[in-house]
Design brief:
Elements: E1 2-5, E2 16-19, E3 22-28, E4 35-40, E5 50-59, E6 66-74, E7 80-84, E8 108-117, H1 118-123, H2 135-154, H3 174-190
Antiparallel strand pairs: 1-4, 2-3, 3-8, 4-7, 5-6, 5-8
């Protein structure tokens, strides 16, 4: 029903069913994992009105007990999701539906999928650091970068009367920087991935 993928490793489709509606994948050497992809195999859909809450568990460094954190969810309409887990390792655990499970090896983490009603999934709040960057955050970064470059270059602006001749310096009119800035903004608004081609 589910698959789990870590970059550089084989796809895992052998989830351990720990209850009728709970499935767990073991992630060996989790300290070297940054992102995990959880997806539906496409063979068995969720029952109507149901989805899967995705959790990440790692051994507490002090007690060794599993620390569970909600990453997000998958549904028939959103059958896969990528989660960033590298920042979660030191976080605190929260409520989870997996009960008390036996501890696994100190270098093994677990990804759990709990089949739950969609209205319950909508009320749950995943840990914010599990979200993967989106186009919106990329566009925000790009806008800040453009603003920073323009402000930095403008801070050195001189009028022609203030310029002293220096044969080793090349001067770029600020109108060129402004025109580039405006063109880049326009192209980003039309297609945030234009720079990839």
């Amino acid at each position: 029903m589910f698959g789990c993928l870590v970059a550089g490793r084989l796809v895992q489709t052998d989830a351990l069913q720990v209850a009728s509606d709970k499935f767990v994948f073991n992630l060996a050497d989790y300290e070297n994992v940054n992102h995990v992809v959880v997806f539906m195999l496409g063979t068995v859909p969720f029952p109507a009105g149901m989805g899967g809450a995705v959790y990440f568990s790692f051994p507490d460094p002090v007690s060794g007990a599993p620390v569970w954190q909600l990453l997000g969810f998958i549904t028939n309409d959103k059958p896969s999701a990528i989660f960033k887990i590298s920042g979660l390792k030191a976080g605190e655990g929260g409520a989870h539906p997996f009960g008390v499970m036996a501890s696994v090896s100190p270098s093994v983490a677990q990804v759990g999928v709990s089949v739950e009603a969609l209205d319950q999934l909508a009320q749950q709040i995943p840990v914010s650091s599990a979200a993967v960057s989106t186009v919106d955050t990329f566009m925000q970064f790009t806008q800040k970068m453009l603003d920073s470059l323009y402000n930095f270059a403008s801070s050195f602006a001189l009028s022609q009367a203030q310029m002293t001749p220096n044969p080793s310096e090349t001067f770029i009119p600020s109108s060129c920087i402004l025109r580039w800035y405006e063109n880049f903004q326009r192209r980003m608004a039309q297609n945030p991935n234009f720079w990839k081609s």
